Amino acid sequence: MNLDRTNPEAAIAEAAKACSNWGRWGADDVLGTLNFLDAAKRREGAALVRRGVSFSLSQSFDMNGPQKGWRRRTNPVHTMLDTGTDAALGNQGFPHGIGGADDVIAMPLQCSTQWDGLGHIFDHGKAWNGRDAAETVTSDGDRVTGIEHMAPYVAGRGVLLDVGRVIGENGELPDGFAVTEEHLTATAEAHGVTVGRGDIVVVRTGQLSRTRRDGWGDYAGGPAPGLSFTTAGWLHTSAIAAIATDTWGFEVRPGEFDHAFQPLHQVAIPHIGLLIGEMWDPDALAEDCADDGVYEFWLAAAPLPITGAVGSPVNPIAVK
């Protein structure tokens, strides 16, 4: 795809038409590309567990996170409702000396490691499968494609594409680096792994590693390496079930158009029906994959079944 930097509208329209999955799984579909992740694919993923070593691919959920308030996103606020102090002072009113602690957390659902649900992004007022966005997501939440529908299904064969290690320098891609289909294919070949139908793909750019070293800076919304808009065709034809990155916005920032905001999202979510993960932490997994040369694994990454939510925190677990 040759991009005209001055005309994002035309590029988005062209890609949306070429990559549309509207109607592919029926008019009532609420799963999008998760339909590719079937029972056979889960059995294939489960068979990859050999050593039994596991990795969390989640960042922390605490006040020390990257959020700065953009789009009213804040870091999690964790508050204790009952504490050991309360128990020791006998303030809890329980019998025979039993005491306990309880807590609550308040946070935007997309403030740390998370999935973008199918109701998260629209294209010209249209949601996934061609639905009217105004009727799909209201003040009551996503009344049709709420992320709770996906909760039972996001587990299967995971594949790490460590583009930062293969293409970058010292394991990292610079901010503004557009990861193309060619980069993804070259990385898969370097890892000796295939990517295809029903896979959950994790792309490591190395930006999170750099952020750990240099501080949050503009991690939540600023410049970043990420997928090129030109990967829309690959995201469609590869028939992957889901894809996640270690960056805030999944796609390259600044973008490849002069005046645009998240144009790949505008194609991938409402037209392809693709489940997209952001701010994942694949660093420990990537080190292990580099050590043993195995870049495929069992991956369980269920969203919280929050009724009507358009996104969800997640603690992805990779098992090798």
From TrEMBL:
Q: Which domain of life is it from?
A: Bacteria
One Pfam annotation, family name? Cyclase
Principal EC category: hydrolase
What EC numbers are recorded for this enzyme? Answer: 3.5.-.-
InterPro entries documented for this protein: KFase/CYL, KFase_sf
Which keywords annotate this record?
Hydrolase
- Could you cite one Gene Ontology molecular function of this protein? hydrolase activity
Q: Does the keyword Hydrolase apply?
A: yes
Membrane spanning stretches: none
Name used for this protein in its record:
Cyclase family protein
